[in-house]
Amino acid sequence: MTRALVVDDSHFMRTVISDILEDGGVEVVATAENGVRAVEQVESVEPDVVTMDVEMPEMNGIEAVEEIMDRQPTPVLMVSALTTEDAEASLEAMQKGAIDTFAKPGGTISTELSGHSEELVAAVERVAAADPTAGHDVDMEPAASPETATEYVNNPTLLIGASTGGPNVVESILASLPREADFRVLVVQHMPDQFTTRFADRLDSASEYDISEAEDGSRIGGGEGLVAAGDYHMRVSGYSNGRLRVRLDQSERRHSVRPAIDVTFESAAERVTDPLVGVVLTGMGSDGADGIRAVKEAGGTTLAQDEATSAVFGIPERAIETGCVDEVLPADRLTEGIADSVRRST
Question: Where's the active site on this chain (predicted)?
Answer without folding.
Answer: 163, 190, 287
